[in-house]
Amino acid sequence: MAKVYVFDHPLIQHKLTYIREKQTGTKEFRELVDEVATLMAFEITRDMPLEEIEIDTPVSRTKSNVLSGKKIGIIPILRAGIGMVDGILKLIPAAKVGHIGLYRDPKTLKPVEYYVKLPSDVEERDFIVVDPMLATGGSAIEAINSLKTRGGKNIKFMCLIAAPEGVELLKEAHPDVDIYIAALDEKLNEKGYIVPGLGDAGDRLFGTK
Ligand code: PRP
Ligand code: URA
């Protein structure tokens, strides 16, 4: 069964408060999302495998650890997932980035896929699918379906804010995908927005309405 991790690190929680705050403008919103993505990437990579190699320091020969696992692919769900990519790349600069474009139909709230471009060596990588919001769960479920259909395995899902409804559906649809979130909010409202949430992540990130 999928595990759900809520990152309660004080820096993440502090920055998330200002991300939520409606007075926060586009520039600051973008910067904060970027910073939180870096902090979350630090936490999410905790279980990366290591191997010991021999090196020479200026003083002596020694054994020391380097990463040994598969290479990483980061998959932002367009649009808002883009805001988290640079923050993750600061810690995993060699990761390749694929894109899955989905928007929620405003009436049905069902995801509509419009773009998919993945790294060519999809079967060789471990993936982190990123999106600031997990609301009904439809977009995350569909993006992960899309990635799996093209050969993606070993997938983690990372978001800033999740609604309990979305977490449950994602766990059910993809029991092999662990979920990493900065905050688990109260509920969805009648328009499918997370309460209290942060509003529309894409609009706040890109200054659209
Ligand atoms: C937002 C958000 C997620 C999705 C979450 O995107 O970035 O992708 O909604 O909702 P769900 O869990 O109910 O599917 P949106 O559809 O607004 O598209 P955008 O990023 O292009 O603005
Ligand atoms: N998408 C968003 O951007 N915000 C929400 O609260 C729900 C879906």
TrEMBL record:
Free-text activity regulation comment from the record: Allosterically activated by GTP.
Keywords annotated in UniProt: Allosteric enzyme, Glycosyltransferase, GTP-binding, Magnesium, Nucleotide-binding, Transferase
Enzyme nomenclature, EC number: 2.4.2.9
Cofactor: Mg(2+)
Cited Gene3D superfamilies: 3.40.50.2020
Superkingdom of source: Bacteria
Keyword Cytoplasm recorded: no
GO BP annotation list: UMP salvage; uracil salvage
Gene Ontology, cellular component aspect: cytoplasm
Binding site for uracil: I194, G199, D200, A201
A GO MF label: magnesium ion binding
The UniProt record lists the keyword Magnesium: yes
Catalytic activity: UMP + diphosphate = 5-phospho-alpha-D-ribose 1-diphosphate + uracil
Residue ranges of every copy of the Phosphoribosyltransferase domain listed in the record: 6-208
UniProt remark on cofactor binding: Binds 1 Mg(2+) ion per subunit. The magnesium is bound as Mg-PRPP.
Pfam families associated with the record: UPRTase (PF14681)
Pathway: Pyrimidine metabolism; UMP biosynthesis via salvage pathway; UMP from uracil: step 1/1
Chain residues that bind 5-phospho-alpha-D-ribose 1-diphosphate: R79, R104, D131, P132, M133, L134, A135, T136, G137, G138, S139, D200
InterPro entries membership: PRTase-like, PRTase_dom, Upp_B, UPRT, UPRTase/APRTase
HAMAP family found in the cross-reference section: Upp_B
PANTHER family the record matches: ADENINE PHOSPHORIBOSYLTRANSFERASE (PTHR32315), URACIL PHOSPHORIBOSYLTRANSFERASE, CHLOROPLASTIC (PTHR32315:SF4)
Function, in words: Catalyzes the conversion of uracil and 5-phospho-alpha-D-ribose 1-diphosphate (PRPP) to UMP and diphosphate.
Protein name, per record: Uracil phosphoribosyltransferase
Organism, as annotated: Niallia taxi
